[in-house]
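CO-FOLDING WORKSHEET

Operator: S.A.
Ligand of interest: fe (ii) ion
Run index: 174
Mode: holo prediction, single chain
Checklist:
[x] sequence pasted
[x] SMILES validated
[ ] output reviewed
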Amino acid sequence: MVRRKGVTSMRKMTDYEMDPEYMACTEDIRRHPVFRSMDQYIQHGTTTCMDHCIRVSYLGYKICRAIGGNWRSAARAGLLHDLFLYDWHTYARETGKHFHGLTHPRAALENAEKYFVLTREEKNIILRHMWPLTPIPPATRAGAAIVWADKVLSLEETMEGIRLRLPSFCGYHG
Ligand SMILES: [Fe+2]
Ligand SMILES: [Fe+2]
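OUTPUT RECEIVED:
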């Protein structure tokens, strides 16, 4: 599902913008055109891939700051964890490839390596973020933080998308 004109992310994301350390360690990625190109694709509900990645990145970063772990790696890899750069809603139909859930971490990593210099930990976080759907868990606390943030926010975004569409499902046009 490509983002429709007029569709905006479900919440104003001003919290991360007021965190100077987060902003400083992610600035090059957030400003990069390939990162910003994710704003054309819907990830869950009405949330674009770009907004989803920012949300996962910032929650993973905050978890790491609370429990210990490399918050810089969590912030940067979180931004890149879904950099697969296609519309997954139509991907199987258009390509005949039916395992987006399993294959997109490697696609995201390959794209990320083309445009950014990544640490070993950042590569591991991107590649292992779909655990336990993919069998090998991330190697570090920052990776675990991104797994957790991704699961929680994906569910929240999906449920919010359903909630917003309920009136039309029920024929209500108030
Ligand atoms: Fe993902
Ligand atoms: Fe994700």
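REVIEW:
The chain is about 60% helix and 5% strand.
The pocket of fe (ii) ion (ligand 1) is lined by residues 81-82, 104, 129-130 (CB under 6 Å).
[x] output reviewed
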